[in-house]
Design brief:
4 helices; endopeptidase fold (from Nostoc punctiforme); 8 strands; alpha+beta; 139 residues
């Protein structure tokens, strides 16, 4: 009986992992479908996003309600020690503390709504972003 329960728990854990991976994948699909959307300060729709509006919109499409501002995302997310696809990555840009954010895609890449680029993919290894990287959070 114990062995059966143990296997049942393993299967449940595998299903949760698979669901998590599937959910992360669909979140990334949604985010990538918005590449090219323009940047707009305070924007929350495909006609114009700011960085946190983009993140909130993408996660909302998957029934995940996230805070609206970069600071609230940073303060309310769970700390991350090892990046996983779908984590929110944070940067210090125009002011100290978390002032920009994106969604981690894997392989040191993230998708974000940049003020000069709109929704695009960038590398955490790029000199601009690596110097400003603050950390990551998970929801």
């Amino acid at each position: 009986m114990k062995r059966l329960r143990k296997n049942k728990n393993k299967n449940k854990n595998r299903k949760q992992e698979k669901d998590k991976t599937s959910n992360s994948s669909s979140i990334i699909d949604t985010a990538e479908s918005l590449i090219g959307s323009p940047y707009s300060w305070g924007g929350t729709t495909p006609s114009g996003f700011d960085c946190s509006g983009f993140i909130q919109y993408v996660f909302n499409q998957h029934n995940k309600k996230l805070p609206r501002t970069t600071e609230d995302l940073y303060n309310q997310g769970a700390d991350v020690s090892s990046l996983e696809v779908g984590d929110i990555v944070f940067f210090t840009t125009y002011r100290s503390g978390p002032s920009h954010a994106g969604i981690y895609l894997g392989n040191q890449q993230f998708i974000h709504a940049g003020s000069s680029t709109g929704v695009t993919i960038a590398s955490l290894d790029g000199s601009y972003w690596s110097e400003r990287y603050l950390g990551a959070k998970r929801f």
